[in-house]
Amino acid sequence: MNQHKDDNLLEVIRLLFRWRKHLVITVAIAAIGSVIISLILPVYYEATTTLLPVNPLLKSPNHVYGTSTENPEPFGTEEDLDRMLAIAESKELTDYLIQEFDLYTHYEIDSTEEKAPYKIKKKLFKLYNAQKNEFGEIEISVEARIKTLREIWRIRFVLE
């Protein structure tokens, strides 16, 4: 039975050796094709920031001035996290982002068109993502084709 397994392996090696030119040509074409396609595709840069909700009790006057005897948790609850996520996905925030970063010009969409608001928001939400992660944080990520725009997004999200 051992001899039979060795014969099968030798047959496979013989078959590969017999078709080596075709295999090498196929692998070379696939490698060259994948390199060409990867060079043609546009480069996207991603800016990501993480937000943690703060417990609203930390801002109460009693706690700020040290007259409170309770010691609240520093981070917010699940409800605070949901509230921040709702803000991150709100119409007001997306309108602000479109206006602040002049996305109509950046994505070359005519703002006087009837469907321009729909088109710009569709494009924005394809590249904008806000979600809860497994650590109880909100993670906001934005993709941009221009590296400087990515840097602006990153700086603005962190500072504001």
Q: How is this structure best described in words?
A:
It is a single chain. With 160 residues, the chain is mostly helical. It folds into 2 domains: 39 residues; 115 residues. The chain contains 8 helices and 3 strands, in the order ααβαααααββα. A 3-stranded antiparallel beta sheet has the order 1-3-2. Strand 2 and strand 3 form a beta hairpin. The longest helix is centred in the first third of the chain and has 21 residues.
In percent terms, what proportion of residues is strand?
5-15%
Overall geometry comes to elongated
Distance between the termini: 73 Å
What helical percentage do the residues reach?
Answer: 55-70%
Average pLDDT: 81
Number of beta strands: 3
- Determine the number of helices (DSSP H or I, runs of at least 4 residues): 8
Output the helix-strand order.
HHEHHHHHEEH
Uncertain spans: none
| Class of secondary structure makeup | mainly alpha
- Number of domains in the coordinates? 2
What's the arrangement of strands in the largest beta sheet? Answer: 1-3-2
Main beta sheet: strand number and arrangement? 3 strands, antiparallel
Quick take:
By secondary structure, the chain is mainly alpha-helical.
